Amino acid sequence: MKVGDLVEFHSSFFSNAVDTYANPGVIISDVGTSVGTSRRFRVMWSNSKMTTEHSGYLKVISESR
């Protein structure tokens, strides 16, 4: 997962939250590692909203070059 990748929010645990995200989104920055080994990314969603998400909640649908 890297800056420029097209992603979707994906979570079975937060299934109600999935509907609140305007998929797809684009990773705009790598925020770094949080507690443990999970990376975090700043994502701009298709409705122009920006959020910071753990990599485990993102699914790459198209990789940037």
Sketch the topology as an H/E string, one letter per element. Answer: EHEEEE
What is the percent of helical residues? under 10%
Number of E-state strands: 5
Label the structural class. Answer: mainly beta
Task: Please tally the helical runs, counting DSSP H or I stretches of 4 or more residues.
Answer: 1
Mean pLDDT: 88
Unreliable spans are: none
Tags for this model:
65 residues; mainly beta; five-stranded antiparallel sheet; 1 helix; 5 strands; globular
Could you describe the 3D structure shown?
This protein is mostly beta strands and 65 residues long. Helices cover 6% and strands 46% of the residues. The protein has one helix and five strands, in the order βαββββ. It has one helix at residues 15-18; strands spanning 6-9, 25-33, 39-45, 50-54, 58-62. The chain has a five-stranded antiparallel sheet with strand order 4-3-2-1-5, with no helix packed on it. β2 and β3 form a beta hairpin. The longest helix is centred in the N-terminal third of the chain and has 4 residues, at 15-18. The N and C termini lie close together (12 Å).
